[in-house]
TrEMBL record:
CDD domains: S1-P1_nuclease (cd11010). It comes from Flammeovirga yaeyamensis. Keywords: Disulfide bond, Endonuclease, Glycoprotein, Hydrolase, Metal-binding, Nuclease. One of its GO terms (molecular function) is endonuclease activity. The lineage of its organism: Bacteria, Pseudomonadati, Bacteroidota, Cytophagia, Cytophagales. The keyword Hydrolase applies. This is S1/P1 nuclease. The keyword Hydrolase applies.
Length: 262
């Protein structure tokens, strides 16, 4: 069953490159699945076994990686909406940020990690925690998920992408990834280049460390928008950052799951 599901996702991901508009090639589809695929390669045996027991036939991280986006239209999950990001406005320090009382990406990651580590958590609670963590670790590594509150993480920063209207958040969410026409497995294969030493170093980072990395990158990319006419040169200059962040997210997701479930 699991093999059939994997094959179906690969086929649909490849077809979607040709059949769907660029807006759908978000970190929330191809990118998120690539993050999850990288994580699959770095899970230890205990974590893999635990995930199989918890998720059953869906025990393949790319399957569940987009769950948090899939349920956005369901009002009962509306409380999770602020969990996808952490806003730091221009010139603001982390210590001065007024945390959202409804939660944010750091709190979501912390809460779900605790659920996995708690022996008293039910299988249902752990299954949801795996789905949420798989998604949020990916989101945390997209620079503009730690963007300015004033422009909704770059969503209000209008640019053109090969002459068509877009915004800088979408460029990083989907436009650059979509321009490559890769399936998530191909993207993951290109990204997953970390050495054992690098894996250990990456997995030593805390979610707050990951957040600061994205904020630093985001600050740089805000400054480099210029006139906002983006295309081939922008891909040439920045696509390696997309690959790097997907790799880092996947390796770190595996580290979190290994520690919580291993």
């Amino acid at each position: 069953m699991k093999r059939c599901i994997k094959s179906f996702i690969v086929v649909t991901a490849v077809l979607s490159v040709y059949l769907l508009p660029n807006e759908l090639f978000a970190w929330g589809q191809t990118g998120h699945r690539a993050v999850a695929e990288v994580a699959e390669h770095h899970l230890n045996k205990k974590a893999k076994k635990a995930i199989e027991e918890i998720l059953g036939d869906s025990a393949y991280l790319p399957i569940v990686s987009t769950w948090m986006d899939d349920i956005k239209s369901d009002k009962k999950y509306a409380f999770m909406s602020p969990w996808h990001y952490f806003n730091i406005d221009k010139g603001q320090k982390f210590e001065d940020v007024e945390r959202n009382p409804k939660g944010d990406i750091l709190k979501g990651i912390d809460d779900m990690t605790k659920v996995l580590e708690d022996e008293n958590s039910t299988k249902t609670q752990k299954a949801r925690a795996i789905k949420i963590l798989t998604h949020l670790i990916g989101d945390l590594h997209q620079p503009f998920h730690v963007g300015h509150k004033s422009d909704l993480g770059g969503n209000k920063v209008k640019v053109t992408w090969f002459g068509k209207p877009s915004n800088i958040h979408r460029v990083w969410d989907s436009d650059m990834i979509g321009s490559k026409g890769l399936s998530y497995t191909e993207l993951a294969k290109f990204c997953d280049t970390a050495t054992k030493e690098e894996v250990a170093k990456l997995q030593s980072a805390t979610p707050k460390d990951m957040m600061f990395e994205s904020h630093e990158l985001c600050t740089k990319f805000y400054q480099e928008v210029g006139e906002g006419k983006l295309g081939y040169r922008y891909i040439y200059d920045n696509y390696h950052v997309v690959e790097r962040r997907i790799m880092e997210a996947g390796v770190r997701l595996a580290g979190i799951l290994n520690k919580a479930l291993g």
